[in-house]
Design a protein that fits this description.
This is Hook-length control protein FliK. With 652 residues, this protein is α+β, with helices and mostly antiparallel strands. The two termini are 45 Å apart. Helix 4 runs antiparallel to helix 5 and helix 8 packs across helix 22. Strands 6-7-8-9-10-11-12 form a seven-stranded mixed sheet, sandwiched between helices. A six-stranded mixed beta barrel has the order 1-2-3-13-5-4. Among the domains are: 126 residues, no CATH class; 124 residues, no CATH class; 108 residues, Four Helix Bundle (Hemerythrin (Met), subunit A) (Up-down Bundle), CATH 1.20.120. It has 27 helices and 13 strands. 51% of the residues lie in helices and 15% in strands.
């Protein structure tokens, strides 16, 4: 990263990584007396806060002190440990450390002075653990990682240190590249194999049909019905088909032609193992009048062919990417409007008011714009007009005024809206099918490659869904799942293999752990996310980094209406690029920092496409600027959500 880009990105990243101050019992922190007030009170700068305190001991204005927190009293008590530190004032601090069994050498003194200067709280126990880790690590990288652990208020533990150290030393791009060297590391059709192959496609790969057969055979053997249900929603299977019929098709397609040669064997270079053949005979007896040749002669054993790749992609592209709550609001909106139109009695005022409230929520969240973005041609413009017209017509019903159109026309307009939303709702897969849909869409690209924009969206979603970042959350919520993520597959690879491949798997696993530890910072009013993607997904030479800061919604989630997103990319043609995107009331202001002279002209040519894409996603483009560079101070000022903490009362 160049010095200009490094200053820009790191300065904003530094703002993002600062966790809210936590003055728990026993914490030690540095503070400076800013002012002495009447009545034995003072203003002390401590931990990036200016706080009002009540003094029970003498302090000097401008003096620096080391305080230890006693949270067992109200208000919280800050005990003065020693006057702090300047040239020749290390002795009181060294004495305090020695009394608590903390070794005082050049390295530990450097660490504690860094913590004090940055006003980062710590406990004596945490400092002892940090010293132990430092003794076992390389001084340069280890010191930097330990400082990050304290600053982000992470547990001072060796596994946490190892994860963060891997995050600093490696890139996902290089680890995925190394993982694929020497042949496929995971079994064909597995979730881990699909994800790795989507990032680093192998030179020789099986066709869509062959890969589909491998995946379906695995599901049939575990008696999973997920793909069966997904195929019905995609229109690949008829609604009347039973799971027994589907299973029979899968096994017949695996066994191949009447000669019994397996299509999977020819597609993967491997023979079907005896236990799979045994399962086939158990699940699908082939004997006597039900001979293999006779069943194949019927010609009704095709499960997934190349022509169905488009149906899978159509289902994937039809997803609105709305929350579960918004999805339920859409269904409620459709049902309410249906009652308004088709009820024999005039609609009640309560029903009309509930519909208006629901309509406004969906409109504000940009859900209708997302529905519009999935339509085309006359249907798109028609639905856009209808959504604008419906609130006026419902308002006329509320006020019992004559509408702007006839009753018959009003009914026709509302029925068209109901049908459009109904079709959109019917395309949405349940949340527990989202990962499976991404898997099948990845496979479909073997037959029908997606356009660049859709391919990038798929790959980024697949990385988030299939990598295993949510494995621990899934376990904590006691969900029964047979999903084997990339992360869990890496654990198995480490135990079953050795040498360089096991080392690569270990480093990648540590990278995932590092990303989980540092990705989310949660405060009372805002959320901060740090995301990292393999550079191959965007055609970049290095990993792509994304920082997102958002106000919290009422449910504690990210607000898509007001947020700040920062991208760092090192692209093949445009080189280092930082994209600073501010979203205010769903209006997007984009500033791109890049040194390429031709970029302003290119950006101007693509501006209309950007506007159209944002409109389909439910946003509008406020402004687009291209800048050559930016200083560190300006970068820090760009973070509109970074707010100073307000003071609270303490007793010293």
């Amino acid at each position: 990263m160049s010095s200009i880009m490094d200053n820009l990105f790191q300065s904003i990243q530094k703002i993002h990584k600062q966790a809210p101050l936590s003055l728990n019992n026993g914490k030690v922190i540095n503070g400076r007396v800013i002012d002495l007030l009447p009545g034995n009170r003072a203003v002390v700068d401590i931990g990036r806060k200016q706080i009002n305190t009540r003094l029970e001991t003498s302090l000097t204005k401008g003096g620096r002190y080391l305080f230890q927190v006693d949270a067992r009293t109200t208000p919280v008590r800050l005990k003065v440990v020693s006057e702090q530190t300047g040239a020749g004032k290390d002795t009181p601090l060294q004495t305090w450390m020695n009394e608590r069994g903390i070794k005082t050498n050049r390295q530990t003194m450097a660490l504690i002075k860094t913590l004090l200067n940055k006003q980062i709280p710590f406990t004596p126990q945490e400092l002892r653990q940090a010293v132990t880790i430092l003794q076992n690590g390389k001084s340069g990288p280890a010191m930097s990682v330990i400082e990050d652990m304290f600053e982000k208020q992470l547990p001072i533990r060796t596994p946490v240190f190892q994860a963060l150290a891997a995050g600093k030393q490696h890139q996902l791009s290089e680890l995925f590249r190394a993982l694929g060297e020497g042949g496929a590391p995971f079994s064909p059709g597995s979730r881990a194999s699909l994800l790795v192959n989507s990032i680093m496609p192998p030179a020789a790969d099986a066709s869509f049909e062959k890969a589909a057969q491998v995946k379906l055979l695995q599901e049939v053997q575990s008696n999973s019905r997920q793909s069966f249900q997904l195929f019905k929603q995609a229109g690949i299977l008829p609604e009347t088909e039973t799971y027994a019929q589907f299973k029979k098709k899968v096994l017949l397609s695996v066994m191949g032609g009447p000669d019994g040669k397996s299509t999977i064997a020819s597609g993967t270079g491997k023979q079907i193992s005896p236990h799979i053949v045994s399962d086939m005979n158990r699940l699908l007896p082939i004997s006597g009048k039900n001979s293999l040749s006779a069943v194949h002669a019927s010609g009704n054993h095709e499960v997934v062919s190349g022509k169905n790749a488009g149906k899978i992609q159509e289902l994937f592209n039809g997803q609105l990417h709305v929350s579960s709550k918004q999805f339920q609001q859409m269904k409620g909106w459709k049902e309410q409007l249906n009652k308004i139109v088709h009820s024999e009695e005039p609609p009640s005022r309560a029903l009309l008011e509930a519909f208006v409230t629901n309509h406004r929520k969906l409109e504000t969240a940009g859900v209708f714009q997302k529905v519009t973005g999935k339509l085309s041609g006359e249907e798109e413009s028609s639905f856009r007009r209808i959504i604008q017209q419906i609130p006026r017509e419902v308002a006329n019903l509320l006020e019992k005024r004559p509408g702007s159109v006839s009753e018959q026309c009003r009914s026709s307009v509302m029925n068209e809206a109901i049908r459009t939303v109904e079709r959109s709702v019917s395309r949405q897969v349940p949340p527990h099918f989202a990962k499976l849909l991404s898997e099948w869409t990845i496979l479909s690209q073997k037959e029908l490659p997606l356009p660049l924009q859709e391919r990038i969206l798929l790959q980024m979603k697949a990385f988030q869904q299939l990598s295993g970042m949510d494995d621990e959350a899934t376990l904590n919520q006691s969900r029964n799942t047979s999903d084997i993520s990339l992360k869990s597959s890496l654990v198995r690879l480490i135990t079953e293999s050795g040498g360089q491949r096991a080392e690569t798997a270990r480093n990648l696993l540590q990278m995932f752990n590092s990303m989980q530890l540092t990705s989310l910072q949660d405060s009372a009013l805002s959320l901060q996310l740090t995301l990292q993607f393999p550079g191959q997904l965007l055609g970049a030479r290095e990993d792509a980094h994304v920082l997102l800061e958002s106000e919290k919604t009422e449910t504690g989630a990210i607000s898509p209406d007001n947020c700040h997103i920062l991208f760092y990319l090192d692209l093949q043609s445009l080189n280092e690029t930082v994209i600073d995107m501010q979203v205010q009331n769903r209006k997007v202001y984009v500033t791109v920092y890049n040194g390429e002279e031709a970029l302003p002209r290119i950006a101007e040519e693509l501006k209309n496409d950007l506007k159209e894409g944002m409109d389909k996603a439910g946003y509008s483009l406020g402004d687009l600027q291209i800048k050559q560079d930016r200083g560190q101070n300006d970068a820090a000022e760009s973070n509109s959500f970074h707010k100073k903490e307000k003071g609270v009362d303490f007793r010293i």
